[in-house]
Amino acid sequence: MGSHGDSAGAIDSLVRSVGRAGREGLEGLLARPGKALVGLDFDGTLAPIVADPEQARAHPGAVPALAALAPKVASVAVITGRAPGVAVRYGGFAGVSGLEHLVVLGHYGAERWDARTGSVTAPAPHPGVAAAREELPGLLDRVGAWQGTWIEEKGRAVAVHTRRAADPQAAFEALRDPLSELASRHGLIVEPGRMVLELRPPGMDKGVALLEYAREIGAESVLYAGDDLGDLSAFAAVEKLRSDGVPGLLVCSGSDEVTELRERADVVVDGPEGVVGLLRGLAERIG
Question: For the whole prediction, is pTM greater than 0.90?
């Protein structure tokens, strides 16, 4: 597994330093960029993690790097648990020259924003989300009214954050079982993340979204970069594609909070800064 910073000139050394599967993925992308899919998480990958998710914004270098790379590949897909419109707004993706090949697969692929049209396509929401949302304040009170714990309304999902609690990890652990029981009663699942527990419908995950989109566009190579537990399913999707003969590269946007991702990645970069450097380097290397 390679570990690299944000040097845009590190691509050739990266080819030499990663393991065989990762090297094949990177070489496949560089050999046929017009058939490559670049998949990216948003929070923690393109945007630094912040205490208040509503204050999250893409790294200042993200849009220029994406605008340089996107015209040279089949597609760039930002895959996020956020509503696509929110990710587009916080990312600054709308109306940017060069991003015509960008899509945002929001709510884990349940909704899609396409830069070409600027429109969002979406099915009807799962009724269990609204029902669970109604019960959450009472549940938090019963568990102990953790000061600093708060609810984020995400439309097709609802999340409970503990990062601002006095003891974030204790609050996280205390809420796991009660939230799992609440989710189960309403036909939902709980997705744990970095000091956040998200209740959402089953069958929605980044792996499903990535796999379906890769097949839809006929991708012949795939790069995926993420930082959190929710990105493990996307890593698994890339591994599935590899087993089907589609080369792939797994990138971890460095996080000491999620060691599982680091261990499975071909490359570890230094957070959003490192991701931006990698994207910029790929754009320059493709030429």
Answer: no
